[in-house]
Here is the input.
Amino acid sequence: MIVMETATKIRRRHLVDGESISALAREFHLSRNTVKKYLKQAEPPRYRRSEQPKPKLSEYHQRLEHWLEQDAKRPRRHRRTARGLFEDLQGEGYVGAYDSVQRAVKAWKEARGRSDASQAFVPLVFASGDAGQFDWSHEHVELGGVVQTIKLAHFRLSYSRQPFLVAYPRESQEMVFDAHDRAFAFFGGVPRRMIYDNPKTLVETVYSGKTRRFNKGFLALANHYLFEPVACTPAAGWEKGQVENQVGNIREWLFSPRPRFADFAELNDWLAQQSRRLGERAHPSEAERRIGEVFAEEQAQLRAIERPFAGYTEHPCRVSSTCTVVYDRNRYSVPGDYAGKRVSVRASAERIMVVAEGQQIAAHARHFSRGAMILDPWHYLPVLERKPGALRNGAPFLNWDLPAAIVAVKDTLLARPKGDREFVEVLLAMREHGSEVVEVACELALAHRTISAPVVLNHVHRLLCPPSPPPVSIPEQLHLKCDPLADCERYDQLRAQAPGGEP
Here is the structure.
C-alpha cells in the first residue's frame, strides 16, 4: 500500500508539476533508477515471492501427495489432518518442520479445488412437504455445573427451511426414535421423505448405488409415520446440504459462547424456543418472506400424525440374585419374585421398563451415569418377608422417603428386639391398603403412645371397617299391635301330617 502511494506521488509531481528525477530521488530517499521505473509503470509495482525451496520435504513430497489422494476418496471424518500427515511422515523418517507440511497440504488442496470438478454442485429444489433432512452434531454445554459433550439432533424441512433441535447424551437408536417423535410433533406433521447419512442406528448394510438394508427398528419407525427413508451416497453430504450447513450455523449462533443449563429438560426447552425463533429469519430463496411464513404454508402439505411412535430397544437378560437387571452400565431393580428369571429390558430415551411374559413388572427413570443403582424399596418386600433383618442396612431402604408418622413408628420398632419383623408387617399393610390409611393408623398409635405392629394393624382395620348404618324409621302402620306367641301345638300338627310322622 505504501509503495503504491509513493509511486502515485512521484508520477504526479514529475509528469504534472515537472519536478526533476534527481529532486524526487533525494526527497523520497530512492535511487534514480527506482524513480525512473515508477515513471514508466502505469500500474504500481508488484513483488512476487519466488518458490520457497523444501530441502527436507522434497524427498517425501511424492509420498505426501499419494496420501492426500488416498484420503480424498475417504469420508470426510476419516481423512487425516495436516498434523496427522506430519506425524505419519515423521514415522517415515521426515525431520523437517510442521509448517512445511502444512503449506504443502494447503497448496495441494487449493490446486485440487481449482481443477477438481467434484467440488461443483447442482442446486437442489424441493417441493412443499416433500422432504426433511436429519443429522447429528456434537456440541459442548454446561449441565448442572459440569461441562459435557451432548449429541444434538438436527431436523430441517427442505422447502420451508424450518429447523428443529433436540439434545441427548447418546446417539443410540432409542434417541433416534424420540427425536423423530419430538420433531414431527413440532412440525405438526410428517414429510413424504426423510434424508439421512448411513449410521448403524439406521442402516445395517450399504450396497452399491442407493440400495440399503435399513435397521428393523428404524423401518418400524418409518412404517409408523409412513415416510420414505432415503440414505445419502457415502461421503456425499451435499445430498442433504441444508442440514449440513445448519450444523455449522447452529454451533456459531447458539453454542458460542458455551451455554449453561440445569439439566437436559431445561436445555431441550430452550432448544425448542430457539427453533421457533430461527423461523423469524428471512427465507434463503424468498428474501421477502420469513421462514415461519413459508413453514405455515408447508404444514398443510405434511401428513397428519395419528399418535407418536414411542419406540424402544429391547434386550433379554436374567435378573440377578440382588433383584436387579443391568442396562448401559447401571442397575435397575425388579420385584424380588423374579430373581434368577429371564426378562426383557425395554429402553426408551427417558425410561427403562422391565417386562416378563408380556407384562410390565418394573419401570424407572433412565440414568446416564455409570455404576448407578436405581432401587425401588417396594420391589424388595417379598425378600423382607423372608429376611426382615435386611431392613436395617439394606441399600434400597437407606434413603426411603416415607411419611413422617410411619418413619417414627419404624424408628421405635427397630429399637426393639425383632422390631424389624414387626415393621415388615406394617409395610405389608401399606402394600395391601395404601400408605394413606397406614399413615393415619401410625398417627393414632403415636397419639396413644402404644406403638406396636398389632396396634397399628388394629387401627388400620378399624379405619377400614364400614360404620354402623343409621337406624331405620318404621311407619306406624307397620308396627305390630299384638306380639306373636309361640304355639307348639301347631308344630305337633304339622308333624302328624308329614308322611311317616307320628299320629
